[in-house]
Amino acid sequence: MTPQADPVLYSFRRCPYAMRARMALAVSGTQYELREVKLRDKPAAMLAASPKGTVPVLVLADGTVIDESLDIMRWALANRDPEGWLERDDRALVAANDGAFKHDLDRYKYPERHGSEPLVHRERGLAFLRQLDAQLAGGGQLCGEKRGLADAAIMPFVRQFAAVDREWFDQQPLAHLQLWLANHIASDLFDTIMIRQAPWSQS
Ligand SMILES: N[C@@H](CCC(=O)N[C@@H](CS)C(=O)NCC(=O)O)C(=O)O
């Protein structure tokens, strides 16, 4: 029998959606071929698999395409979930992250792109951060004491929000959130998925 080829992940290192997918793939121990993509010059093979043109895209050995980050997380964890991440999901919170919070993050971070008033969006984003902080006060992670799907799905977006004005973020009374973010960023898992790789090109 010929061995099954590894799935291929089209990814962009700094994309928060791709980060959450890489975290779930890594924690589940899934072997995959990482293809770093230039967003301005997406490979034809990626667009052929998923014409909507967003990363991450996972292409399985049988040709199945999974092109939504949360679906990639759930696929990987359904195969193998050594830390029990699927038990620590919070669909409403993740939806709020991907919806209103992401909307405010973009308009806070890139006001010139959106013609937006950044501080209005920083304030709205702060309301979500307060909600996360209150939830983290319980056990240190979003669904209790151990990291899970909700933490990995949301953390990359909070990281981006915090980095827009680090001094401001550090001054907010969000001690649980600040500690949570610092620990996730310092984790071996995050280190592993943030390894730099040259962009992939079809040869
Ligand atoms: N709903 C998608 C969103 C993915 C997404 O928007 N990724 C961004 C990068 S962070 C992207 O590929 N944008 C297309 C582009 O910039 O051309 C998912 O969860 O996978």
TrEMBL record:
InterPro entries: Glutathione-S-Trfase_C_sf (IPR036282), Glutathione_S-Trfase (IPR040079), Glutathione_S-Trfase_N (IPR004045), GST_Omega/HSP26 (IPR050983), Thioredoxin-like_sf (IPR036249). Residues 5-84 form the GST N-terminal domain. PANTHER family: GLUTATHIONE S-TRANSFERASE OMEGA (PTHR43968:SF6), PTHR43968. This is Glutathione S-transferase. It comes from Novosphingobium rhizovicinum.
